[in-house]
Predict the structure.
Amino acid sequence: MSNHTKAVTDASFEQDVLNSTKPVLVDFWAEWCGPCRALTPVFNDVAESHHEKVTFVKINIDENPKTPSKYGVMSIPTLILFKNGLVEATKMGLQTKSELSAFVDGNI
């Protein structure tokens, strides 16, 4: 994790994501997923530049199976942006820094 990203769990998801006062970008990932590992530095870079407007969190789907199931995550990496406790936008697959920045900027 970087200084501007944090791990969440099934147990902390409601408090950390759904009850957040600012938008939250959730990265659904797993340790064994190559594209997920490739997305991590991109996610951290975008978190560095956007952390004042958006909270960036990661949830390991193997350790926390309830939350991805609840939100219909079928493949990873999946990024879901939540605003006011609701799904605002979803993006799947590996993203470049410019693609991820545009996704965040276009949905906050």
Summary: The helical segments are 13-18, 34-50, 66-70, 97-107. The beta strands are 5-7, 24-29, 55-60, 78-83, 86-92.
